[in-house]
Amino acid sequence: MLHEPAQQAAEDRATPYKTRVGVWMFVVYALIYVGFIAINVIDPLLMETIVFAGLNLAIVYGFGLIILAIILAIIFNAMCMKKELELNEGGKEA
Of 7, 8, 10, 3, whose CA–CA distance to 89 is shortest? Predict the structure, then answer.
């Protein structure tokens, strides 16, 4: 088992893009989450309403938030990988 020094990471020229995309996705998710919280604060009984397949709004909205977070993470990863390849390795020739 060899223990070699860690390789130095090169500068990531896609960092500003990744930051901008991440902040926008966070804002979108936060606004949707604020809607969930607002319903619970303003009219908590509304969460008991059956909306889909015998499930109430609280369950559907909660699972929706979880699924949305996973979808946003997958989109974020794809967008960032594409931009990293474009900016960091696009100028290199093999």
Answer: 10
Q: With bands split at pLDDT 50, 70 and 90, how would you rate the model's confidence at 62?
A: very high
Report the alpha-carbon distance of residue 78 to residue 88 in Å, rounded.
15
Residue 12 Cα distances to 5, 21, 23, 31, angstroms: 21, 15, 18, 30
Q: Between 15-42 and 57-88, two packed helices, what is the crossing angle to 10 degrees?
A: 170
pLDDT in tens, 4-51: 777 777 777 888 999 999 999 999 999 999 999 999 999 999 999 999
SS3 51: strand
Residue 60 is given by DSSP the state H
**3-class DSSP state for residue 18?**
helix
Sorted by where each begins, the domain ranges of the chain are: 17-88
CA distance 88 to 12: 7
